[in-house]
Amino acid sequence: MSEVTVKEVKKYFNQVKALDGVDMKIQDGEFVVLLGPSGCGKTTLLRCISGLETVTSGEIRFDQKNVTHLPPKDRNLAMVFQSYAVWPHMKVKENIKYPMRIKKFSKEEIDKRAKETAELLNITELMDRYPAQLSGGQRQRVAVARAIVLEPAALLMDEPLSNLDALLRVTMRSELKKLQQRIQTTTVYVTHDQVEAMTMGDRIAVMRDGKILQFGKAEEIYQRPKNVFIAGFIGSPQMNFLEMTVKREEGRAELVSKGLSILCEEDKVKGLEKANLDKVILGIRPENILLSPENGCVPIKGSVYFTERLGGETIVHVSTESKRFVVKVSGDALFNENETLRIYLNVKKTRLFDPETEEAIG
Amino acid sequence: MMKKTLIFILCLLIVLWFCGPVLLILIAALTPSAEYYDLARLVPTKLTLTHLESLFVRLKATLISIQTALLSIVISFAIGLPAAYVLTRYVFKGKNLFRLTILLTRSFPVIIIGVPLVTLYLRIGIADSVLGVSLAHSSMILPFIIIISSSILGGISVEYEEAGMVFGLTRFRSFLRITLPLALPGFAAAAIYAFVLSWNEVFISAIINLTNRTLPAHILNTAMTSPDYFKFAAGTVMALPAMIFIFFTRKYLMSMWGISLK
Description:
Helix content of chain B: over 70%
Distance between the termini of chain B: 24 Å
Radius of gyration of chain B: 22 Å
Number of helices of chain A: 9
Number of strands of chain A: 20
Structural class of chain B: mainly alpha
Oligomer: heterodimer
Strand order of the largest sheet of chain A: 6-7-8-3-9-10
Number of domains of chain B: 1
Number of domains of chain A: 2
Structural class of chain A: alpha+beta
CATH topology of chain B: MetI-like fold
Shape of chain A: elongated
Largest sheet of chain B: none
Number of helices of chain B: 12
Distance between the termini of chain A: 38 Å
CATH superfamily of chain B: MetI-like
CATH class of chain B: Mainly Alpha
Largest sheet of chain A: 6 strands, mixed
Largest interface: A-B, 24 and 17 residues
């Protein structure tokens, strides 16, 4: 168990930039998720931490120890690979015991730990099988067992659930999280699945183009995304974005677009004043648009364009004069196409972005 | 149904086309000398192993052939495996050119380098030796070993090896303990292929060695001046091991050359 510090890490593959100055500090025992679209550098960052990839510049520390130039074997890490990488020529028990044998644990210790870990992951009856005789989910458990049995300084996981079917993925998601809480090992977890990130991570680092855009708790990233990209990447269905004109008068600000006018709250007025913009992008999440009026909501007229009924919730696409909004309603709701209705934007839960820089302003 | 029959006949013709001559050679090799020249008799009344035996009593040549083939395999793998590893596991400038150049070495017929080799060998004192022929054979086998091995290594997920490295092994030991056992069946097939190449090579060993000749070179020298049935017996000895080896390793040979059966 260690604190992992990544300082100014850059990584180039020949001329191609994969990591562009990454800084992050992972607390002891924390579960951190690296989230981003493919090609954003999240796997490269994980591999740099593991030592399988050397960094071009920068520093990686485990606690106070500088490990930047150590080979992977001397970093006291464990890793769960995307393909599991459970060695096919060894039985399950050999897979679990082999890393301990390399590290010269005593025989009693090896047997004891292997037994305990197998029990923890429910694979005791699989110990004498070869990986080829296991299902994907079982192989996954073996890979996790092999990783945690060493009690490593940090546990690295590279999209470990992406090869499982949807149902198993949900189960393993909660099991992995529970397991991590129990063993309290510092964990770095790479995924492109925002649901995995939101549900598992103590903190999430959203990455794009080799940079960490935002690093914080799930709710913080969800409620206060730092820019348009993060706001759009996290949350499903996607946040609604609408470009609006700013009308400012003394101590007041009004956002206007066709058929919609929003009087800003005090905190937003301050942000707008500071940014001094003529236009802003308004972001509002589908669940913050309501079908019945409530305090502090701004109405807009529209007509139903399309409905997606998912059983437990309904996604309604509503055309208005200025934009087609996506609205999420809980429960099963029935709408006729082209039916006219009013939707109500919960202004308190909106987010404003600068249209030029795409950064949040309030 | 019609289509199936046609395909069957076509396959049969192809098999006959390739195996017919081999069968005739085999029969001729097993025909007793008295019956061989009897034109009235196409199929012999009885078969004999005497011609084949008389070739194999030249135990020395057979032994040298085996030694040469084994030594060639050792040399080729010692040089070829690291090259194959680099070709599959690393990205570097000029990689494709390097791969191409490896194959290009095959465009020099071995026979051209024969004479220069003999002069070179005489100077450094390994002419007329197993080592000399093995080195020459290695130069012929090496490109195959590199290309084949890199395709075998390419078929083994790099993550197995990386897992080894994360869990406490150096890159080299991870290759030895994780990748090598997984690649072994493929490497064995490659080695057998190399064995066949060396076993069947005749010109180089005929040129380089005078007294320590490999079996084919020896046969070339002696059997060709002998009666026909000896020639056929010699042909059988040369062809049979290759055919048997290739038969048993054909599945691997397919994957070695990157041909997928799926």
